[in-house]
Amino acid sequence: MKKILFIEDEPTIQKAISRFLEQEGYEVKNALDGELGLEIAKKMIPDLILLDLILPKKNGFEVLKELKKDDSTKNIPVIALTNLEESDNIEKVLSLGATAYLIKANYKLEEIVEKIKQVLNQ
Amino acid sequence: MYIKKICESLNFVKQCRKYNLGLWQCPSFLFLLTGLIIIIAMISTYLVAMKYTQPEIVALIVIAITTILFIINHFIIQSVEKLTEANRMKSEFISIVSHQLRTPLTGIKWTLNLITRKEEKVKNCHTQELKEISENNERMIKLVNDLLDVSKVEQKNISLALEKTDIKELLQKIIEEYIPMAKAKNIKINLETKMNSLPILIDKQGIEIVIRNLMDNAVKYIKKKGEVKISLIKKNKLLRFEIEDNGVGIPKNDHKNIFQKFFRSRNIMKHETIGTGLGLFIAKSIIKKSKGKIWFHSQENKGTTFWFEIPIKNKIK
């Protein structure tokens, strides 16, 4: 079973994705802020991280930077999952090492799972 | 035409009202005032110099007038700064609002997504109602996205994001997404192209938005049963996309306004009140940025054909 860490502070969104992914056969762990997210990532070493960009304590950009700095987490693929406008942030996020940038409102849950499968080569 | 424009720009009361500014904050009034003062100053300095020959008096008058001009210019700069700041705040406001609005909209979308799955029990209870909530949800997401696109194209300084794109594949992907909606209205979508699946350099994101907006209109404004014909042609260094529908058409009187922001044609409002009037404005702005052109021909009750042409490059310079 593939393990996914979802770093997201919005409870509704977090619940919807977790439940959906669990039904699809993934093990999902949630983190409500950036600091906690980093901590769990280092302990859990998930197969993939879904990362929101606007987060309390540490924002998504900082989290991504630290994930890519740490040897234990730098190879974990990260998908930025946000509602921030793409044009301003996509280059920044990709240059920091994220695999993809998805605008939440434009995707159905099925499409997100599809993307996860693609990244995990499933 | 040109004279009319100059006259309009001289009508400072109208200009100031348009920007909702008081007279002393309004650049067009202040510029006019500066001009008037300069003319009066020149004439009166001449007259004074004729009467009084002492250079001190003339110098004093010049100093006094320069001071007045300096003060007025100060007002002008202040008001321009204020307008620039307002513009910056508008962009910031839009990006904050879009994020803040899209987040709860995503919450609704995904929760609906979850409860309408096979696995969930609610499935058979309120299928129709859930579908309606979902449609309204999508409408709001589309509106927020349209507003964001408008704010993006209005920031004229953003550069073109050229990307290697297999345009045929992109088009097929978009068409596939529209097939369920078209089927429900008994509309056929046909694609005609002899193009190879070769990647070309275009503003992928932008062109995708343009194609989607044109597809939206074509499918939306065919009322009963019909056909959407799409063709993609590459001729020399131009890419031409054409989309033809046999829908309600655009009345002749509305042709000149069709690309304006928030404009919606009268006959369209009869058939379909949903829509923002932003799609074609966005499309035109994007195509203009790609140095292409977009136009249409249409006959009321017969149908409409929209087309755009953009130059393509094969290599990044």
Please characterize this protein's 3D structure.
Chain A is an alpha/beta fold and 122 residues long. Chain A has helices at 11-23, 34-44, 60-69, 86-95, 109-119, and strands at 3-7, 27-31, 48-51, 78-82, 100-103. Chain A has a five-stranded parallel β-sheet, sandwiched between helices. In chain A, helix 2 (34-44) runs parallel beside helix 3. The longest helix of chain A is centred in the first third of the chain and has 13 residues, at 11-23. Chain A starts with a strand and ends with a helix. In chain B, helix 3 (27-51) runs antiparallel to helix 4 (55-115), helix 4 (55-115) runs antiparallel to helix 5 and helix 6 runs parallel beside helix 7. The mean pLDDT of chain B is 82. Chain B is built from nine helices and seven strands. Chain B starts with a helix and ends in a 6-residue tail after the last strand. With 317 residues, chain B is an alpha+beta fold. Chain B has two domains: 1-158, Signal transduction histidine kinase, dimerisation/phosphotransfer (DHp) domain (Helix Hairpins, Orthogonal Bundle); 162-311, Histidine kinase-like ATPase, C-terminal domain (Heat Shock Protein 90, 2-Layer Sandwich), CATH 3.30.565.10. In chain B, 57% of the residues lie in helices and 16% in strands. Classes of the chains: A alpha/beta (122), B alpha+beta (317). The A-B interface holds A 10, 12-13, 15-17, 19-20, 23, 54, 83-88, 103-106, 108-110 and B 95, 98-99, 102-107, 109-111, 113-114, 117, 119, 141, 144-145, 148, 152, 158, 161, 205.
List the keywords.
heterodimer, A: 122 residues, alpha/beta, 5 helices, B: 317 residues, alpha+beta, Helix Hairpins, Heat Shock Protein 90, 5-stranded mixed sheet, two-stranded antiparallel ribbon, 9 helices, 7 strands, 16% strand
